[in-house]
Design goal:
With 257 residues, the chain is an alpha+beta fold. Helix content is 21%, strand content 32%. Helix 1 crosses helix 2.
């Protein structure tokens, strides 16, 4: 007979694969981040789709303080949830919002190295950088967030990532770039800054890479790291085109329907 964690993970994995909404997960898998991470890893292990990268989540210090967490968390991003700028994204009542992020393409050589990743040595592992949009939400009949465990347990709350044009990595003032995401049709515009992302996106990247090393993950290929929202979680107030812009990195678009 299957245990509760096995049965529950099967339900969530099925919802993930078939774009369904299920009843909320039991609190024992979502209340504490440690338990949510264990549940997330079990669910991810049941997905056969290739992993294209990893996301940092909970990277805003006010959010960490609110939920009494000392650091963010990370989650795997699968190929089915990754696409190019300008594609359509279907939302539902469990969608939480839209985010604008900096992402990095990391060289597979990272997996061969054994040194701890620091802000000083991190550059040699980065191939490209780009702006990206993430739509976040649950695969559960659930609204709001009561802690990091809520997000982490449900595949990191990732619905879809859309990536803008990549450019070769170069050192820029990544810790203080202006950002904006808007939907002109409904007159919604939100300004942000890369300094809201766990000090800065490079520091967020460092956090994820060291977590991957600690968890002994090896994809044996280049992969993306999505570093966290520069604009917070922006509510999707209407359908249509959302365009995000990050100073010096460019723009990225998503069509919400």
């Amino acid at each position: 007979m299957k245990t509760l964690i096995e049965k529950t993970s099967d339900k969530l994995v099925n919802a993930f694969l078939k774009n369904k909404i299920i009843s909320p997960l039991p609190l024992k898998f979502t209340k504490k981040l440690k338990d949510a991470e264990k549940f997330r890893k079990l669910c991810e292990s049941k997905i056969k789709d290739p992993i294209v990268g990893f996301k940092a989540a909970g990277t805003g210090f006010p959010l960490m303080k609110k939920f009494k967490e000392k650091e963010p968390f990370y989650a795997s991003i699968f190929k089915r949830n990754f696409d190019k700028s300008g594609k359509k994204i279907k939302i539902n009542k469990s969608t939480l919002g839209i985010e604008l992020e900096v992402c990095y393409l990391i060289k597979k050589e990272f997996f061969k190295s054994k040194n701890k990743i620091t802000t000083k040595n991190i550059s040699k592992y980065i191939s490209h950088m780009a702006p990206c949009i993430e739509v976040i939400g649950y695969r559960q009949n659930k609204k709001g967030v009561s802690g990091f465990g809520d997000l982490c347990s449900d595949f990191g709350a990732n619905v879809k990532f859309l990536i803008g044009k990549k450019q070769k990595y170069k050192k820029i003032n990544i810790g203080n770039l202006k950002t904006n995401i808007q939907n002109k049709k409904i007159n919604q515009s939100i300004n942000g800054n890369t300094n809201t992302v766990y000090i800065n996106p490079i520091n967020s990247l460092r956090f994820v890479l060291n977590k991957l090393r600690k968890d002994k993950i090896n994809l044996e290929k280049d992969f993306y790291v999505f570093t966290g929202s520069t604009v917070g979680v922006v509510p999707i107030l209407g359908k249509g085109l959302y365009q995000g812009k990050i100073e010096k990195l460019g723009s990225v678009k998503a069509i919400i329907n």
